[in-house]
Every structure is written in structure tokens, then in C-alpha cells.
Amino acid sequence: MAKQDESPGGVPNSASTLPAPRPEGPKLDPVYYTWSNTFSILMGRHVTGNRDVSLERKYFEEMDALKADSFCKRCETNRDYLMQYSPVVKFLKDEVAKLGGDLNAKNVHCRMCSTEQGGGFHVDHGILLCANKFRNRGHQEDTMAHEMVHAWDYLKWKVDDNNLRHQACLEIRASTLSGECRFTREFFTKNQWSITEQLQKCVRRRATLSLMARPGVQDNEHASKIVNEVWDSCFNDTRPFDEIYR
């Protein structure tokens, strides 16, 4: 079958008809757009056997732009709910307050992110939650807990942002205590099916990946070495919890 030309909206044009001028600021139908682009990505993989990274990136970036308001509103609604009802988030919020900090809706920000991170912490600006990266409320809860452990650590200890051992320790503690490495999450979302020392393997993996994104870290081997140097003391330090909560 001969391939038909398509207009910007995806509607076929006959060979004798010139395409209509491209309208300014077209409004896309999210349902059609999602199905059409997902189908193209899947077909591209099937036919070529290669992952079309540029097509996927463009698709997700455009979908994020279309849904930015709804993503952020959902994130803010879940943030407020978790601060009121989540045991781990409420506990960490109270522990931060004991050290003179105050985590609230004004310094826990929901924003759109272009990287793969789920969130971040800055001592001067608070917590960043990447609204377009959360699968569900539970995923956001883990991310909030992770960043709140960072907040507690910065208030409790004298943290040097340029000290890679300090940064490795922060990531080990946050991944251990937040719940993001618990067995069920690793099993169902990361296809990590190891039974023995599953928690330790997950924490090591996450801490190493986080460290590799920092200036001064040469490669995976270098990052792993730093993580190993501080592993025993940082993994076994469960403060402010009495033990690993979940």
C-alpha cells in the first residue's frame, strides 16, 4: 500500500490536496497522542530491534508538557496527604523539627523534572519532588522519606558537600531507611529477585549510582570503592529510627 501524506494532526491527505497550514499552538488529543506515539515506539523496537531513545525522550517530554499542571497538582495533593497520614513521613517530619528544622508545603516543592531522579534535597531550598516521575502515592512516599533522611542528616551532622565519603554515607542511610529498598518494591518494580541480602544489594546499587553523578567520581569502580569504605558504619546507623523501619 502506498504511504499517504499526513497532516500535523495525523489525518491522511489525498495526493491531490495540499496539506493545510500548520495551526499555531495546536491542541493535541492526549488519548490519541498517547496511543499513536506508544504504538510508534513499540513498532520501532519490533522492526529494528533497537531502542529509539530520541523518539522516547521526545514523546515523554511532550507528554510531560501537556500534563504538567495535573502532575504537579497530584504531587501536591499526595504530599499534603502523606505529611498528615504517612507514619514514616510524619515521624521524620517530627524528628527534623526536634533539630530545629521545619518541613512543610512551602519548602517541599513539586516540580517537573527532565532527569530520571525522583527528587532532591538542598540545605537552603528544601526538598524537590519530581511530580512527573512518580508511579503512585507509595513511590512518592518513599522519595519523600529518602529526602527527609537527608534533611535530618544535614541538621544533625556537619556534612561536607565536597567530601565523597560523606555523600556516600548520606545515600546509604537514605536508601536504607526510606523503605525504597524493601523487598516488595525491588521485586515488583525493579525485577530484583534476590532473596539473600536483598536490602544490602539494593542500597549498594542506589548509593553507587547516586555517587557516580557527582563531580570527582571517575567511574563505577571508583564509586563502589567509596561506598565500601563507609559501608559498615553508615548502613548500621539507623538514627533517628531505633531500627530499619520498613
UniProtKB/TrEMBL annotation:
GO molecular function: metal ion binding; metalloendopeptidase activity
Keywords carried by this UniProt record: Hydrolase, Membrane, Metal-binding, Metalloprotease, Mitochondrion, Mitochondrion inner membrane, Protease
GO cellular component: mitochondrial inner membrane
A Gene Ontology BP annotation from the UniProt entry: mitochondrial protein processing
Pfam family, one: Peptidase_M76
EC number(s) on file: 3.4.24.-
Region (Disordered): 1-23
Annotated localization: Mitochondrion inner membrane
Membrane topology: Peripheral membrane protein
Described function: Has a dual role in the assembly of mitochondrial ATPase. Acts as a protease that removes N-terminal residues of mitochondrial ATPase CF(0) subunit 6 at the intermembrane space side. Also involved in the correct assembly of the membrane-embedded ATPase CF(0) particle, probably mediating association of subunit 6 with the subunit 9 ring.
Family the UniProt entry places it in: Belongs to the peptidase M76 family.
Protein name from the UniProt record: Mitochondrial inner membrane protease ATP23
Organism (species): Pseudopithomyces chartarum
